[in-house]
Amino acid sequence: MPKIYQFINFVIFFYANEHLPIHCHVKRGDREIKAEIAYVNGKLVVSFRKIKGKDILTQSEIGTIEEFIKWKHLQIVEKWKAFFVFGKKPKFEKINKK
């Protein structure tokens, strides 16, 4: 389970057995959500999915993490490719400010 970011109190990571579409998981405490990254008609779209058996983040937290993912989406995609295509451990980054 490579962690790719710690953003404030959120941990953003991949599970080692992931699948398409490109996505990351976001955890805060015991709550978790999946964030899918895609382009639809040339526009970035971040979609959130509930993880079976897990409580989800609050709407406010989802808004905060959506901003973060939109800011870092290119890097997240690069980290995805590094790990799942090239088998390299992605670089972990800690970001403490919005």
Protein architecture, described:
The protein is an alpha+beta fold. A 6-stranded mixed beta sheet has the order 5-4-3-2-1-6, with helices on one face. The chain contains 1 helix and 6 strands; from the N terminus they run βββββαβ. Helix content is 28%, strand content 37%.
Report the principal-axis shape: globular
Classification by helices and strands: alpha+beta
Q: Could you give a short account of the major beta sheet?
A: 6 strands, mixed
**How much beta, percentage-wise?**
35-45%
Number of helices: 1
Radius of gyration: 13 Å
Low-confidence stretches: none
- How is the largest sheet built, in terms of strand order? 5-4-3-2-1-6
Mean pLDDT: 93
H/E element string? EEEEEHE
Give the oligomeric state of the chains in this entry, treating copies of one chain as homo and distinct chains as hetero. single chain
Distance between the termini: 25 Å
Helix content: 25-40%
| Record field, number of beta strands | 6
Brief descriptors of the model:
alpha+beta; 6-stranded mixed sheet; 98 residues
